Amino acid sequence: TKDSAGKDEL
Amino acid sequence: MNIFRLAGDMTHLFSVLVLLLKIHTIKSCAGISLKTQELYAIVFTTRYLDLFTTYISLYNTIMKLIFLGSSISIVWYMRHHKVVRRSYDKDQDTFRHYLLMLPCLLLALLINEKFTFLEVMWAFSLYLEAVAILPQLVLLQRTRNIDNLTGQYVLLLGAYRALYVLNWIYRYFTEENYVHWITWVSGIVQTLLYADFFYYYFQSWKNNVKLQLPA
Questions:
Q1: Which of B31, B93, B152, B167 is positioned for an S-S bond with B4, CB 3.0–4.6 A?
Q2: Is B5 near chain A, with CB under 8 Å?
Q3: Residue of chain A minimizing CA distance to B164
Q4: Is the ipTM of this complex over 0.90?
Q5: Quick check: B122 and A7 CB within 8 A?
Q6: B145-180 pLDDT per residue, tens
Q7: How far is CA B183 from CA A9, A10, B47, B127, in A?
């Protein structure tokens, strides 16, 4: 999930 | 999830609760900028479009729904509730907030992680969030009497942003390939906008006097 890391933040 | 991120989310949640408490219990939105609240409603609507495409965790989904629902309902209360809307400082809250949206959109079209609809909207929401507090700060400065709940609301929002910066620093050192320039730069700009408010808030707290911002 390296691409979406950061997108798990609100 | 690290402690800074969790604490950041919780202060964000508390800030919303403080505002809802003021609106629901005291039936007042005095000192609260509708312009800022409208910008937040747009920020969360454009950022959380991925609710339909990506599942991250139950926590993530619930928090997104809370921030979406609360920001939209706060705008509704301030505009339409027959008691609450009367306490709105309409004449003082004159920031032309829609003028902030166009530059943010242009910037999002130019600077994004990928040129797709969701990514451009995501970048737009970050740029807009960075400046969304401006109408509120301007209103605070104009309102001579800042009540405790309004002061606490802005303090909690600022704390949420500062904790997110700590969260990024922590993640940068503990996770591989965790680099997010767009989020970081806009987040740091946003946090810096609170610096002035923080200064006066802690001065008033230290000296035990009512919070007042210089004109």
A1: B167
A2: yes
A3: A9
A4: no
A5: yes
A6: 789 999 999 999 999 999 999 999 999 999 988 999
A7: 10, 11, 12, 9
